[in-house]
Amino acid sequence: MPEQRIVTNRVFVLGLDEFYRQAMKRHESTELLQCAEEVASILSIVPGKGLVEGYYTELPELTRYFQLVRTLQNVSQEREVEVAGVNSFQRLQQVTQSPIFGTPADQLYLLPKGKNALSIAMEQTFPAWTIANLTAETFHVAIDSDDYSLVAIAALSKDPVVLAACRESVVLYAFLSPGGAYNPEEPEYIWQVDPLIEQRAMKFVHTFNQLFNESLPEPTSKHVREYFAAYREWELVGRCVRIGFDDSSKPIRHYHWAIMQGTDQQLTVEEFWDNELWTTQRYQSKLNGE
Whole-model pTM? Predict the structure, then answer.
């Protein structure tokens, strides 16, 4: 019998996440970095040196972009008149306000962050933040809306590992090789993706491709091989993202989700509070005993 390679909801969404990450890294480290540099220069703004989250530690250009955008996200919207007619600012606005990141949270700042299904669920459930509560509530928020952000698509899978992974991928914009026996037969690829996830993902891919002139494959069974090949579950271990905070206490406490391997070697999500902000780089160092 040929090997079966099944594209389930988890495989598909994590494959889509990988396509997104690789494409975004190219644009953020080149085109978008140049835009952010120009806008910061016009406004005479020096980027902050705070902790760098997500995959933005992988390249100096990505780190620089993260620091610039984080700084611009804290600039008052009143200064927009200084850059409103600048193409670089218009491009940054076009990207950061795209529905692939949710709905802009507010208009108080130059580059507002996107409010997605998870951020809405967190507002509705605080202080009862648990993996089970947030996974369930985020699913309900996503299914009751037309949100097709990456996080909303992940929420529809009702899989906390997928939700944590995708939320870490959009951290800047949001409020190994396995072995096996040789099989000479062509693997059988099977598409088992829920129609609703496929429908929202179609909007996400279409919008992303238009926004960046990219060619992410359509999320249909026709591209089952591409999505299975892009699926990188074993690379998820250690992704850590702060998804909320409680400023009613002093010092402020930060709420995190991190992906780790359980005792059965299956992926699971650890939730924890800490007075300090944890990044993927810091959490992976902890897992590696560094």
Answer: 0.86
